[in-house]
Amino acid sequence: MGKTPVTTATPELAPLFTELRGLIQSARHAVATTVNTLQVLTNFEIGRRIVEHEQQGAERAGYGKELLKVLSARLTEEFGNGFSERNLEYMRKFFLLWRERLPEISQTASAKLSQPDKISQTLSAQFSISQTASGKSGPPFTLSWSHYVLLLTIKNPEERSFYEIEAFQSDWSFRELKRQLPASLWPL
User: How far is residue 124's CA from residue 120's CA, in Å, rounded to a whole number?
Assistant: First the structure.
């Protein structure tokens, strides 16, 4: 009384199995891509809101350090790992370095992300943003958060953009991007 072993399945089912396997793999890839993009958009928004909050204060330097410390403690307590002071600094820097690319994100995503029942609208909106930095249609951020954290270490904006484009077009994993950076592919 067990499952029929896969090896004894009839040959007539092979094409159906192949179709279903492809469908499931495609759906899983789409979910992973959507989750990655939503995480990056959320981190962009967190960075934006931190920067905007900091700019209201007169003593930004000391105040900013304390702000990140308090935010980190409260967010980590409620949501768990991922909100260390260092990661909040990355989010802040991410917004500062990529903000000119996506002025629409600040209005579109922030309004929808602040309303949990509108997450599906945010997912739809992120793919309807009409322009990216290169002028091509598509999602505003195409890499994972880990990729962007690594790209934050590159000081030269043109070099950073080069590696972002290469990582996307060549479908580089985080490890592959990390391996490629010391190889100095960037034309000097």
Answer: 6
